[in-house]
Amino acid sequence: MSAESDMEYSDNDGDDYDYYGEHEDCDMEVADRTKSDPEYFVFSCLKVEEVEKLLNESIELLSNSLQITPSLAKVALHAYEWNAQEIINKYKENANEVLVFSRVKPQVPSQSISSRSSCAVCASTPQLHKYSALACGHYFCNDCWAMHFEVQIMQGVSNTIRCMAQNCEVRAPEDFVLSHVTKPALRDRYQQFMFKDHVKSHPQLRFCPGPNCQWIFRAFIREGARRVECKGCESLTCFSCGAPHHAPTDCATIRQWLTKCADDSETANYISAHTKDCPKCQICIEKNGGCNHMQCGSCRHDFCWVCLGDWKAHGSEYYECSRYKEDPNLTTDSQHAQAREALKKYLHYYERWENHARSLKLEEQTLESLKSRINEKVMAGEGTWIDWQYLWDAAKLLKRCRYTLQYTYPYAYYMEVGPRKELFEYQQAQLEAEIENLSWKIERAETTHRGDLENQMDIAEKRRTTLLKDFLEFSSKSNNSSKV
């Protein structure tokens, strides 16, 4: 096997960052993964053809059960989040129930109506145009229907196109729309929007948000921060809300945090600098790697990029750097002082959030550089890819740990002061310390002993899983308590 093919094989097969749900039927494997990975979540990645087959099965079931057209079945399923059995049960209980009957009653066919004087939209007469109506019986000329559908489709509307009559909520089924839309490009656009709307309305499906990615996730639970990874673009997504995966922060909190970060009234006061002065010799230093353990090239002083403190102090007391300290002298009577303190607190967490985001980008470069160096060694005959696999695994683990660490800061920002927050910040600090140690060793991989690096990998991953396991268990208990 050539070096290039060897690398391609390892890049996929040796990836321990695998969260696909291909083994849903294996109870033993699921149990093992649940123990080792607190974020493990059974799901599957489907292609468009597979999703279409899944949707068509529900459409066929409802169509045959209620003896209606597939187009009308689609309208009903979209309205009831693709729960065909619920629609069937409601129909059996009361066939004339408005919520179901208004959506599955066949539309009135196209015809001339001499009793009407003119179309309510264009004022044309029945002698000049044919008229059509949906289940509601509101008649309009076919030209107006065509214009209505064209406008709606161009605006991205498909499944929710309604009758033109004022305050009428009856929706137009697919076959009725296509019978009035003749332009091929417009018909294709409409059917594309229909498929997207079907997926979005289905509680078990979610599009991968990756750019130009065609994969679709399927899972059976949407509560909590559920991590899924795309087979195609490898992006990490929260299945619950569709945002980038954000554990340990829950969906509601991350939305609140991102909204806050986008608020110019706060972020405009903060400029994230890419250079800082060495706290010992004052020489300007540019951060060109993900590690926050900095060493001045001039005086060799080791310090923390975040707080500029001596790195030697970042041992057992490391959490002092990541933890926000409330001002004990703050007087509640001064609104100005409170506002200043609130901004100070926000900037503390935002700076660390943004710093880890930048470190992730810089470490992407480290990952690519490491991949190239390993390839060069393999091509030069200095071992096989398997011999250097541990370096690649270390870099990917670092990325995973730092990603988790970044999302601990929005969570900590909104936590109430107390023992729970102190414990979380302690776990957060322990993880941060091990991540920086791992980052430092990876950036000096050529001189780092393999055993030392693998030991650091094990420690970092245990810190990460401990923090997440504690968070997920606490969140699960809180959700259960709130339901009770």
UniProtKB/TrEMBL annotation:
UniProt entry tagged with the keyword Lipoprotein: no
Keyword annotations of the record: Coiled coil, Metal-binding, Nucleus, Repeat, Transferase, Ubl conjugation pathway, Zinc, Zinc-finger
Keyword Membrane: no
Database matches in SMART domains: IBR (SM00647)
EC class name: transferase
EC numbers: 2.3.2.31
Residues covered by the RING-type domain: 115-325
Location of region: Disordered: 1-20
InterPro entries: Ariadne, BRcat_RBR_TRIAD1, E3_UB_ligase_RBR, IBR_dom, Rcat_RBR_TRIAD1, TRIAD_supradom, Znf_RING/FYVE/PHD, Znf_RING_CS
Coiled-coil residue windows: 428-470
GO molecular function: ubiquitin protein ligase activity; zinc ion binding
Catalytic activity: [E2 ubiquitin-conjugating enzyme]-S-ubiquitinyl-L-cysteine + [acceptor protein]-L-lysine = [E2 ubiquitin-conjugating enzyme]-L-cysteine + [acceptor protein]-N(6)-ubiquitinyl-L-lysine
GO biological process per UniProt: protein ubiquitination
Cell compartment(s), UniProt: Nucleus
GO CC terms in record: nucleus
Protein family according to the UniProt entry: Belongs to the RBR family. Ariadne subfamily.
Full protein name: RBR-type E3 ubiquitin transferase
Gene that this polypeptide is encoded by: LOC114249408
